[in-house]
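Quick start: read one record
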Amino acid sequence: MKKYALFIVLAALFVISRILSRLPVYSSSYLSIAGFLFLGMVITLGGCELFSNGVEGLGGRFNLSHAATGSLLAAIGTALPETLIPVIALLSGKTGQREGIAVGAILGAPFMLGTLAMFFLGLTVFVRGSLKKKRAELSPNAAAVKFEAGYIIFAMSLILAVSLTGSRKAGFFAAFVLLGSYVLFFIRTLRHKAEEHENYAEDFHFGLYLGFPARGRWLAFQSAVGLLFMLEGAKLFVEYISALALKSGASPLMLSFLIVPFATEFPEKFNSISWTIKNKDTLAMANVTGAMVFQASVPVSIGLLFTRWAPGMAEMIGILMVILMILTIRVTVSLRKTIPFWILLAGGALYLAYLAQVIRFGLVF
């Protein structure tokens, strides 16, 4: 029975979260909200561990480098659910709102990854360095980071140019360029060479606790279960953090710009934090940059092809800040092969600067 204890606990938490998601959360007390927030984080963390362990197993089984595993398997897996948001908005949203919601969701994802996700990555690196009394810096595969950063800068610059022109034909052209470029990126990333110190998880959790063989289909199954737990935990967290904000009298502006965006990128943040703690810096960084590459290619192409694509000034500023952050990371890696924690923390400063400008000039309205 002890062998199955972890699985039973996680399954029970998942069922509880499903029940809680059907309850009227906004009438909850502060104490119950705090408890449910903790539960959401536990479910998310459990899902992240299952997902990252399964993805590592798949990467090892297919002899992929950490850069390829993080940028493709992990990044696409965690980014796919977010990609459904603009698609659902286009298919089921109200006529006057669906395009605005879709464009906002599409451009919001790479922005949050380029600012808040980088900030939390930097914070984790700082804590890790302080506890282990070593330099607080990230040491990913430098060649992979430079390649992915270059792609992100190219993609975001193209998106900005198309957004400024407002040309429908230019949008169609850019969409096909981005899709074609992503195919090339995918092929090139598969060829990243593994570094000498790279290693994958030795224990397959479903094998250790449930007796499943460490074969491709079971590794993929565990990754899918982990992803499901991450999404369920993040959903529960969003519902109760929103309830906390509204119950405390926070404005809708604060809710929209500070809370919901943080929660939508939960999986990427937690996976990267987990890998950073385990000193798997390439996996940690590739998970964020790979997700940014995917978000700046596939969802943006959907928006360019199926909406009138008219981002506002707030979105334009967000694109510029992403380019600035990623350019800084690329230059840093080119000069010193590592990324100091304070460079990553700059993502948080950019997010706050963005928020200040949005509020100051009323760009959110």
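The longest strand covers residues 137-138.
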